[in-house]
Amino acid sequence: MGNTQIPYAEKVWNPVVGCSPAGAGCANCWAARLASTRLAHLWPYKGLAKAGRWMGRVRCNVEHVEDPIHWRKPQRIFVASMGDVLHEQVDLAVLEMLWNIMRVCDHHTFVVFTKRVGRLIPLLGPTLPILPNVWLIASASTQAEVDQQTGWLVQCLARIRGLSLEPLLESVNVNLNGLSWVIVGGESGPNARYFDPRWGDRIRRQCKAVGVAYYAKQMGSWWGRMNADPANWPDELRVREIPE
Q: What are the domain boundaries of the chain?
């Protein structure tokens, strides 16, 4: 674990690896593809993925659980790029351990991406501390997923609450009440599905109107196959705004 090319984080921390599909956006999961190819020979990933699909098993990556404690310089840390810390198979004891590490490492900012933010609703406060240095970002790809995730997000207290609409697979309406950040992007990989930049533009205008940060991450591989010239990309795919 360590430095990353992810544009809105300096470090990646993978204390939990492995996952299972939780929505339409999971069909071509890049992390599952990586875990079943380049990383398949490494102990943390053995048996977790096959042919680009997660097998529904989750593993605590014990070797890297305490990494943030050793990073002295304040960093923005992407949590669990190769899994989901809120997966149903992650024991409550493991969650308590991870939240305690994030509490102790209050010089860092932890960006938690999850498709299962609903699991936090009964836990935050009574069991897990509400931490000002933890950003909570829920992933969604369709209107049904957006509605579900935003309904859960407003019930969770976090300094930054946001949506990651990547891959965005259809035009969606987003209730921005209580949100600080929206990330939009097309799908990457050899089987990438279509992404319409007008979908992103609509969300960008909604965010601008109410002062919510908007981050356009990528057009996706579908556009790359169509030989789209980045010089001709519309403005909504150039915005790079990260909340403070």
A: 2-237
